[in-house]
């Protein structure tokens, strides 16, 4: 019996010491600031924060769990918008609100986690450092915790900072694809031959061989584009602003052949394991390209490709594959909007 009394006294002493130390030396809530800069314009960055459907696509808190289920509530964007989430695997749930918005300057979020009636308050300020760079400042105030839970305040800031670091990587990928698309559309000059230095790209797609008979090739391209698009968006869960324009790669002069072989893929930011053997990754190395934009029937692209080949021959350049980048989604019975790129080298 005596040993149990001693153990009980020790436990009471430890609990008392813990309680006293938490009460006197650890704050019941915590406030801190985190600052980051991203290389994108203010309006592009702000729109990813004041729309909760956009916000949850790149914020690591929501993207890190495959089991999380999210519901959004009107008005979906700006002050008054809200969302709720449930994550059965991690046994968490919560609600998030935008309580205040000063467009392109400030947002205030309230986050209620689990059964806690007191919210985490997050003020986010945005400042244009330059036309192409934005500074983001998070001011976080955590809810009051009971004496027994105050130990959580020791790692709250580190956990929040780690989440922001991972989220910024995701945000840069999303904005990179979105801004690249916007800039590409704005810069289009049709039927003008240009020279571009193409950066390396990683494509996830499908290898195909098909007939080159009239209309048959384009119908096959549309069918296989839909396969790749559905796999990327439905099976992999990617959103449209998380990837680039679809690219078809083929021999420059195979438009003469009765049968055409091509690779059709969608640019992604990184490689990962895939379970469907119909799909594979392919890397497009950085290269110098002769480029021409074309809009019209798919069959009419041949004349534009011939212009690229003639230019390469005139300049005494060797050439490789031709890339057909679909600026607009290929759809059967409709004209195409293409960026045609011929890789050239000495």
Number of domains: 2
Output the radius of gyration.
Answer: 27 Å
Q: Find the structural class using helix and strand composition.
A: alpha+beta
Poorly predicted spans: 12-26
Number of strands: 15
Spell out the helices and strands N to C.
HEHHHEEEEEEHEEHEEEEHEE
**How much is the average pLDDT?**
84
Q: What fraction, in percent, of the residue positions are helical?
A: 25-40%
| Main beta sheet | 8 strands, antiparallel
* Proportion of residues in β-strands: 35-45%
The CATH H-level homologous superfamily of the largest domain? START domain
What distance separates the N and C termini?
92 Å
Shape: elongated
Strand order of the largest sheet: 8-13-15-14-10-11-9-12
Output the CATH topology of the largest domain.
Alpha-D-Glucose-1,6-Bisphosphate, Chain A, domain 4
By CATH, the architecture of the largest domain is named 2-Layer Sandwich
CATH level-1 class of the largest domain: Alpha Beta
Number of helices: 7
Domain Activator of Hsp90 ATPase homologue 1/2-like C-terminal: 39-175
Transmembrane segments: 6-26
InterPro entries: ASHA1/2-like_C, START-like_dom_sf
Keywords: Membrane, Transmembrane, Transmembrane helix
């Amino acid at each position: 019996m005596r040993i149990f009394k001693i153990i009980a006294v020790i436990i009471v002493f430890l609990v008392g010491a813990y309680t006293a130390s938490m009460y006197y030396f650890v704050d019941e809530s915590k406030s801190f600031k985190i600052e980051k800069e991203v290389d994108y314009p203010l309006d592009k960055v702000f729109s990813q924060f004041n729309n909760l459907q956009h916000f949850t696509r790149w914020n690591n808190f929501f993207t890190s769990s495959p089991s999380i289920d999210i519901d959004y509530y009107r008005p979906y964007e700006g002050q008054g918008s809200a969302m709720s989430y449930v994550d059965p695997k991690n046994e968490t749930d919560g609600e998030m609100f935008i309580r205040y918005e000063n467009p392109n300057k400030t947002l205030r979020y309230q986050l209620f986690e689990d059964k806690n009636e007191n919210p985490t308050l997050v003020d986010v300020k945005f400042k244009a450092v330059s036309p192409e760079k934005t500074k983001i400042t998070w001011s976080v105030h955590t809810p009051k915790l009971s004496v027994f839970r105050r130990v959580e305040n020791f790692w709250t800031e580190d956990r929040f900072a780690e989440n922001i670091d991972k989220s910024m990587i995701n945000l840069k990928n999303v904005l990179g694809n979105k801004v690249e698309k916007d800039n590409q559309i704005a810069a289009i000059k049709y039927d003008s031959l240009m020279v571009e230095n193409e950066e390396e790209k990683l494509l996830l797609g499908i290898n195909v061989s098909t007939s080159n008979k009239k209309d048959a090739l384009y119908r096959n391209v549309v069918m296989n584009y839909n396969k790749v698009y559905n796999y990327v968006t439905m099976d992999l869960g990617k959103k449209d602003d998380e990837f680039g324009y679809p690219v078809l790669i083929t021999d420059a002069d195979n438009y003469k052949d009765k049968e055409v072989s091509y690779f059709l893929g969608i640019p992604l930011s990184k490689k990962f394991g895939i379970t469907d053997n119909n799909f594979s990754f392919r890397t497009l190395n950085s290269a110098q390209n002769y480029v021409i934009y074309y809009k019209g029937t798919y069959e009419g692209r041949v004349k534009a490709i011939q212009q690229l080949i003639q230019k390469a021959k005139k300049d005494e350049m060797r050439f490789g594959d031709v890339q057909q980048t679909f600026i607009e989604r290929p759809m059967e019975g409709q004209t195409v909007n293409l960026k045609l790129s011929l890789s050239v080298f000495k």
